[in-house]
Amino acid sequence: MFCLRKLLIVIAFIPALAAQTAEELVERNLKAKGGVDKIKAIQTLRLSGKMQQGSFTAEIGRDAMAPDKVRQTFTVLGMTAIQAYDGTTGWKISPFEGRKDPELLGEEELRSIIEEADFYGPLVDYRAKGNTIEYLGHGTVDGDDAFRLKVTLKNGDIYYYYLDPETFLEVRVERIQFVGGAVREIFSEPGSYKLVSGVYFPFSLETGSKQNPGEPTKITLEKMEANVPLDSKEFQMPSVPSGPSSGKEFDR
Fold first, then answer.
1. 231 vs 164, 228, 235, 246, 251, CA distance in Å?
2. Cβ neighbours, 10 Å, residue 49
3. For 2-235, which CATH class?
4. Mind listing the pLDDT tens digit for each residue in 205-236?
5. Most-buried pick from 20, 77, 155, 226 (CB within 10 A)?
């Protein structure tokens, strides 16, 4: 009975130990990036680069402002698509679909951009955001060992973070979204971390979908600037001009 009692005590403490380990991993990850103070000292980000999938290449751009504003551009053959979120409304301009006027995002697109607009990501101030974390032990990425961390967002979506055991930076992030009764699983593998205003950011990214396996999309950043002057109006959905269309693409 004595041995059984000790075993029960150990089992009772396992959740608490796991929670503390998860918290320590978050702390180490944020410290590895530069520390919470330096992370929060950044209020805006502007980046540009290229996206490639096979022989297809596009220019990409992104402006972001804390706490939850983002505007993304995608340019091919002189035409630019826009997706943006101003903290309340998500909208887009889709010239590749023959639509030159701004329109509201659909449910799936809106869900994604709201999460992407979280300027500091789901790990910073995770408790205040209503997110929960759990340490899942070790996993592997391309045969290499990694710490595996589960982050459940307030909305129910799940992120799995794979952290390098030496640097504690992300080497893979898997995201599971639950939208309209459907499950969407995507992954990203960040790399080529560089310092920007004292904080490490990935300058390369490979992304893909578990449901549609194939050649991953590769993103290579060419420039990233922190604390650039941004006008909050650029994230707001522009009004559609009245009268006949001018025939010009909207791109500001």
1. 37, 10, 8, 26, 15
2. 19
3. mainly beta
4. 999 987 777 778 999 999 999 999 999 999 99
5. 226
pLDDT tens digits, residue range 29-88?
999 999 999 999 999 999 999 999 988 999 999 999 999 999 999 999 999 999 999 999
Beta strands, E only, 86-226: 90-93, 103-104, 132-141, 144-152, 158-163, 170-179, 182-196, 199-209, 217-226
- Measured CA to CA, the distance from residue 88 to residue 117 in angstroms comes to 11
HSE-CB for 159 with a 13 A CA cutoff = 22
CA distance 10 to 12: 5
Provide the pLDDT for residue 197: 98
Residue 195: is it exposed, middle or buried by C-beta count within 10 angstroms (0-12/13-18/19+)?
exposed
Q: Answer whether 73's CB lies under 8 Å from 223's CB.
A: no
The domain ranges of the chain are 2-235
- Report phi then psi at 199, rounded to 5: -125, 135
Q: What is the pLDDT of residue 249?
A: 38
Return the residue matching tokens 């402006």. Answer: 63
Return the sign of the alpha-carbon dihedral for residues 244, 247, 251, 252.
negative
Q: 127 is written with which tokens?
A: 């408790």
Closest Cα to residue 100, out of 210, 252, 245?
245
Per-residue pLDDT band at 241 (split at 50, 70, 90): low
Q: What is the DSSP string of 94-116?
A: -GGGT--S-EE--HHHHHHHHHH
